[in-house]
Amino acid sequence: MNTEAVEMPRQSRLQLVRRGAAAGFPIVLGYIPVALTYGVIAGQSGLTIAELTLMSVLVFAGAAQFLAVSMVAAGTGAIEIIIATFVLNFRHFVMSLSFMNRLRRIALKAKIPLSLGLTDETFTMSSLHKREAKEEYGSWFYASLMLTAYLSWVGGSFLGGLLGDIIPSRLSESMGVALYAMFIGLLIPSVKKHSRIAYIAVIAMAVNYVFQLWGISQGWAIVIGTLAGGLCGIWILEDEEEEV
After folding, report:
1. How much of the chain is helix, strand and coil, in % rounded to 5?
2. What is the DSSP string of 206-234?
3. pLDDT of 12-26, one tens digit each?
4. Which pTM was predicted?
């Protein structure tokens, strides 16, 4: 018997919303502590609770928000922050294209708002639930998944901003280590998969350091280092693929 020919049972919108929320719950468990840390660090950097929460509402990108907060703390200008976060989040274009290609049966008016909820985690989780893309109301599943993750991130950021004024100063200052831990956590899995990515990271750090020695502001040094590392990666990773 061909199991692929068996028609899947139709599910209601409510059922798909519940399943989406359940699928997003593991993301919530990971987001809340990171969002709390972001809120505390953002508050220390001089952002008000309203500002740091609004950043989570509008940006919804953990790594980019940590980077932006660190640049704000260093007194970096708005243009440098915008360019740096744009470069860091450029991978979202690729994720969006892949996600949209999977949702061929879903209307464009649903695809556009869904793309705004894509993060590394929601993209990964949605990739594990491909069957829902074939459901009549499949967009409700993905919307519920992303909204669950989104609300936990925004809520955690707000709570972190509140706790920043309550928790002991030594504890809040030590949470600044989370900034470096997050970027190292993003780097290590990539290095394990492609060892030459370590070269890209070293090049980016070296360029950043040299330009700061030359008197370039920290913000522009980060932007130049990021672009230099990305451009070098085109040839470094291409050579690695040829050797495989």
Report:
1. 80, 0, 20
2. HHHHHHHHTT--HHHHHHHHHHHHHHHHH
3. 888 889 999 999 999
4. 0.74
